[in-house]
Amino acid sequence: MGAYIVRRIAQTLVILFLLSVIVFLIMHLLPGDPVRMILGGEASHEEVEMVRKELGLDRPLPVQYVSWLGGVLQGDLGTSFASKEKVIDLIKKRLPVSFHIGICAFVLALMIGIPAGIIAAVKRGGWIDSLITVMANLGMAVPVFWLGILGIYFFSLKLGWLPVQGYTSPFDDFWKSLKQTAMPIVLLSLTTLAQVARQTRSAMLEVIRQDYIRTARAKGLKEKDVILRHALRNALIPVITILGVGMGHLVGGSVFIEQVFNLPGMGRLMVQSIFNHDIVVVQAIVLVVATVVAAANLLVDIAYGYLDPRIRYR
Fold it and tell me: Which of 47, 114, 238, 270: CA 20 to 30 A from 87?
């Protein structure tokens, strides 16, 4: 198991390195001049060249990349072109908001998705199965940002139950934070919840047809024990493999949610930085998000190897 974990960590580090190269090149090859956007269109050529030299943008791309990567490895993500703040300070302000929304949405998706999938499989062919299947399909098909707009219209403007926008830390005011984040968390969890429910149902249907499940029932075990103790562990193996993808969706989907609900998170910061052509901030955010997704996939791979011993020896 130790060799398996080391191999997966090495693969993750290689992926992050390649991703850093790709992100750096893409951001520097995009049309538009960040210096012109900072100074304005009326800036002289001499002023533009002077600022470009101060920012280090006059150096060759390989030199810029090595300098940027060296700073990243030392915890220095650079300085924002637009706000002149340290990028690491900007991320420290925004990251807790995105983590709060994303982790709560992820936990909610697991708490509802897995039991819903189990119930649908056990009640296969019944109205409960049909209802869960239809709702899961809708959850995967309907755009999150559209549901967010509808949620604001009905629950905030019409009914007045929840605030339209804003964010408060749960450590400052728990109930106010709960009201402000209830809709974003629910909406952000929908797609992952639907995927987990569908995958759990499919895996459970396959597992409960196996001979060892019939044997467990023939021994007189309670149906609850057969499902939870014998069938669920094997059924969770394919479910765990999609959790890394689900985490990626939660991180990426937060861009739309934070825009709709005006949340001061990483997604909103990235959108603002893209409009400002603040490539240093965008590079840092993409790298942080990629690291979170890679870490989530690494944990999923380790859990997969633990649940299925055949995997760790590949």
Answer: 47
CA distance 313 to 118: 30
User: Which residues have C-beta within 8 Å of that of residue 243, sequence separation ≥ 6?
Assistant: 110, 196, 296, 300
258/96 Cα distance (integer angstroms): 13
C-alpha closest to that of 68 among 14, 6, 17: 17
Task: Render each residue's pLDDT in the chain as its tens digit; 314 residues.
Answer: 667 677 778 888 888 888 888 888 877 776 666 666 666 666 666 666 776 676 666 677 788 788 878 878 887 777 777 777 888 888 888 888 888 888 888 888 888 988 898 888 888 888 888 888 888 888 878 887 788 888 888 888 888 788 877 788 888 888 888 888 888 888 888 888 888 888 888 888 888 777 777 777 777 777 777 777 777 777 777 777 777 666 766 665 577 788 888 888 888 888 888 777 777 888 888 888 888 888 877 777 777 766 665 555 55
In words, the CATH class of domain 88-309 is mainly alpha
pTM, full prediction: 0.78
The contacts of residue 100 (CB under 8 Å, 6+ apart) are 169, 170, 181
Q: C-alpha angle with apex 237: 231 to 240, nearest 5 degrees?
A: 130
The DSSP symbol for 155 reads: I
303 CB contacts (<8 Å, ≥6 apart)? 240
Burial class (CB in 10 A: 0-12, 13-18, 19+), 120: buried
What residue ranges do the domains of the chain occupy? 2-73, 88-309
